[in-house]
Amino acid sequence: MTVLEDRIEMADADTDTEALDEWFRRLERMPVPEGFRVEIVGGNVHMTPQRNTHWQIIRQILWAVEDRFGRETKVFSDVRIDFPGHENGFCPDVALLKDTAEPDGGGHWRYQDVEFVAEVISEGTAANDYGPKKAAYAIAEVSVYLIADPYQRRCHVYTHPKGDTYTTETRVDFGEIVDLTTTALGLALKTDEFPRD
């Protein structure tokens, strides 16, 4: 890339951050029902209710990550992180950041510090998780992207990001162990207690 291309990319990122900040300020003033998750994917606002099945899977993933890395690790649920692409203010179900991660001057976590993301499928947002969000995570070089799909009763593990895709996908049925020991995560995720829809 040239210096000019770098500056254009940085200006575009700043513009997207400012637009996303404004979107989220407006959304915070709206009467969003309790128990709903709000995020922006490609400039479109998505609100989905938090279902019991969804939350139980998230909790089990969080516990596994904390058991592996400790309670002080930088692991979040439903916290805004801006990802590459036009107005992508995602709130991943689970995001693990590098130990060295620090929020930027605006208090936002940087996508460059994200090592692992897990999304649990909801009927209304499945297309986002399998489509534009997966592409954005690959572009951001998130090394491990896990989708837990209670409708398929299966996990999809994406590794080795290249461009806007992942070169490796592994499918593991609920009830089996998701072997992430050879990834940056370095853990074996039990799925035998993952609820199904």
Question: Gap between N and C termini, in Å?
Answer: 46 Å
Rg, alpha carbons: 17 Å
Instruction: Kindly report the spatial arrangement of strands forming the biggest sheet.
Output: 3-6-8-9-10-11
Biggest sheet details: 6 strands, mixed
Number of strands: 13
Structural class: alpha+beta
Along the chain, the helix and strand elements come as HEEHEEEEEEHHEEEEE
Number of helical stretches of at least 4 residues: 4
Nearest-integer average pLDDT: 84
Q: Proportion of β residues?
A: 25-35%
Query: Which parts are unreliable, with pLDDT below 50 for 5 consecutive residues or more?
Result: 1-14
Global outline: globular
Share in helix: 25-40%
Summarize this, please?
With 197 residues, the protein is α+β, with helices and mostly antiparallel strands. It is built from 4 helices and 13 strands.
